[in-house]
Amino acid sequence: MSQQKWIEAWETLTFDNRFTRHLPADPDESNQIRQVHGACYSRVVPKTVSAPRLIAHSREIAEQLGITPELLRSQQFADVMGGNAVHPSMDPFAMCYGGHQFGNWAGQLGDGRAINLGEVVDVDGRYQTLQLKGAGPTPYSRFADGLAVLRSSVREFLCSEAMHHLGVPTTRALSLVLTGDAVTRDMFYDGNPKQEPGAIVCRVAPSFVRLGSFQIFASRDDVDTLRRLADFTIRHDFPHLGEPSPEVYAEFFAEVCQRTAELMVHWMRVGFVHGVMNTDNLSILGLTIDYGPYGWLEDYDPGWTPNTTDAQGRRYRYGHQPQVAQWNLAQFAGSLLPLVDHDVDVLQKGLHLYVETFDDGWNSMMSAKLGLDKFRGEADQRLFSGLFDVLQLAETDMTLFYRRLADVPSDSDAESVCDLLRDAYYKPAEINDEVRTATADWFSRYQTRLAGAGVSDEKRRARMNRINPLYVLRNYLAQLAIDRSEQGDHSGIAELLEVLRHPYDEQPGREAYAEKRPEWARHRAGCSMLSCSS
Ligand code: AMP
Ligand code: MG
């Protein structure tokens, strides 16, 4: 294809690179690892790879960006998404940010293996940044190679899209490209490095700015750059707040708190465990961002973390996520102090809003999960906590439990409820008299509550099935798709994505994707435990 034709093929996309146009750039354009001061980003081009090949894509995102099916199928699309070509409308860069990792300030982090290609104005006029993850080293790569392996890229690709279809705010994934190059990884940090296939995901979001993007400037007393980033973010991503001022910075903070609280309610609803909720992994837009050693709760255990690096402290366990988000927001508040004349109280309001939004959201979410008409105060809260106790009596699959509960007629004999829910239990032998009695007691209370609400079983079931997914990205399902992909059969990724596009609908013929984790997957790497190595 001639250079001219090549350029024209991308003309259905409109690029407008606001981030690089409005914000201060690192004057150094060399690709050397360094501390970057007074700049929001460094210009850097993706690393060339041997044989870029598109192995999966999201058709919804492609359409949203205005990418034609012809372009999608072309080798030049794989070339761009693999990092081998940069279109003249793009302006590739890596962002500077810092963060608290596992509760400790870690200084400068930045896009160590993510390279933003530029911003596309999508078919609805919204700005979307395209970002290649695993596209090679940047000035922020610290001690690592800037690359990503196939297994972690499949996981990021699938989970981004699965979350979207579940109705959970998230960054999206446009494409998954195999680079044709091998990447060395010591998966369990035990001195057994292996060669793995390299891959690149193109992530898409209105903004990839994180809480840590603000923290880095505050930590360096660089109030000028801090203000520029805040003003840029408010003008472009929070324009409804009006022109930046101390009051508007406080409102901005409050809205970030509100969105983050809503996100936590969603994660708790679907059983998602992020695994690495460092402040650099929390989005300013309240999106789920940075899919690493995340996992899906199978057995309902609030203490579970999929991340082997977090196995000791379990800071990022399922049940602790709402508190961690609040802690992260408090760190973020600290970094905004110079913009609000150091008025702690005005930011405290945002943190209160976090608690209020989370509590309200949690109560209505739990009511909806149980098919109640609405949340009716303390008695309902007792019903919820009673349920969490019951869920922990025996190893119980959270996803299946809610779906099966929706099918249980409200006039069922309470004593038989465990039999009706048997699909959700991992070990039938655990369902002893004690479990039966406790479950029956709880179910009787639920029956009374349902009678008071006057909701028909049919309505309740429909209401519950709209909020309780049947198909989630079970850890072992992702691993099976990865195993096939590593053997050269990439079709499992598209098959799984197809199922996950309709997570709340029963899909005849696809029952296997809704089954609880098989025994072989209980302790297999990638299925129940993951390291940060990716
Ligand atoms: P994470 O907590 O995995 O999101 O990453 C923390 C920091 O490490 C971020 O600044 C990443 O960009 C960086 N990082 C992670 N993996 C790599 C890698 N393979 N090469 C370079 N930087 C990386
Ligand atoms: Mg990260």
From TrEMBL:
It catalyses: L-tyrosyl-[protein] + ATP = O-(5'-adenylyl)-L-tyrosyl-[protein] + diphosphate; L-tyrosyl-[protein] + UTP = O-(5'-uridylyl)-L-tyrosyl-[protein] + diphosphate; L-threonyl-[protein] + ATP = 3-O-(5'-adenylyl)-L-threonyl-[protein] + diphosphate; L-seryl-[protein] + ATP = 3-O-(5'-adenylyl)-L-seryl-[protein] + diphosphate. Signal peptide: none annotated. Keywords: ATP-binding, Magnesium, Manganese, Metal-binding, Nucleotide-binding, Nucleotidyltransferase, Transferase. Its cofactor is Mg(2+); Mn(2+). ATP binds at G110, G112, R113, K133, D145, G146, R203, R210, D290. GO terms for molecular function: AMPylase activity; ATP binding; magnesium ion binding; manganese ion binding. The active site is at D280 (proton acceptor). It holds the Pfam family SelO. Mg(2+) binds at N281, D290. Its EC number is 2.7.7.-, 2.7.7.108. InterPro entries: SelO. Belongs to the SELO family. Nucleotidyltransferase involved in the post-translational modification of proteins. It can catalyze the addition of adenosine monophosphate (AMP) or uridine monophosphate (UMP) to a protein, resulting in modifications known as AMPylation and UMPylation. This is Protein nucleotidyltransferase YdiU. The lineage of its organism: Bacteria, Pseudomonadati, Planctomycetota, Planctomycetia, Pirellulales.
